[in-house]
Fold:
Amino acid sequence: MSSTLNVRYYNNKEILLFPPSISDFLPKDDLAHVVDEAVEEINLTPYYRKLSPVGNPSYHPVMMIKLWFYAYATGTYSSRKIENKLYQDIAFIYLAGMQKPDFKAISEFRRKNIKELRDSFIDILQICHRLGMTKLGEISIDSKIMKANANAGRTYSKEEIDEEREIMEKVLKYLEEANRVDDEEDRKFGTDRRGNELPEGIS
Structure:
C-alpha cells in the first residue's frame, strides 16, 4: 500500500557498501531492533488517511513512529534532541534509515497525530508484552498490560479496564510533556533554530 502513497522513499534496510547494513552498527539484542520490528506490525491506516496526495512528499509515518516510540522508550522528549540524535546516535540513525527530518518536521508529526501515536504506543507495548518483555528501555511493561478492544467478545474486569486507562494516561502524559518541552524550546531558541548552532563566524 505504501508504494502508492505520497511519501518519500523509506527503507532502513538499505544495503550499503560498508558496513553491509546500518543495523550492523548495533548489537543484535539492541532495543532499537525490537522497536523496529514492533512498529512494522501495527496498523498504520489512520496515518495514511491523513496524508495529502499532492504537494511535497511527507516523511514516512513508519519512520516517524519508530523515532517517537524509541524516544519514549529512552526518555527523550525534545524534538530538537531527536534531530540531534539523528546525527550522533546510531540507534536513531538506524531507525530513520539515515534520513534527517529536522526538529520542526518531527514535532509537527507528533502534534498532528497525538491520538494516533497514543494508540500506536499501546499497540507496541502490547506486542512487547506478548514477547515476554517486562522492560522496554525506561518503560516497565506490567504483566497484565492489555487492550480492552482487542477482543469484542470478551468481558473485561474493572481492574483490567482501569489498568488500560492508566497505561493510556502514561502514554498521553509523555506526548503532552513532549509538546510542553518543544513549546518551551521554541520560546527559548526561536521556532527556526535548534539552539546548538555554531556562531556564524565559526560555521
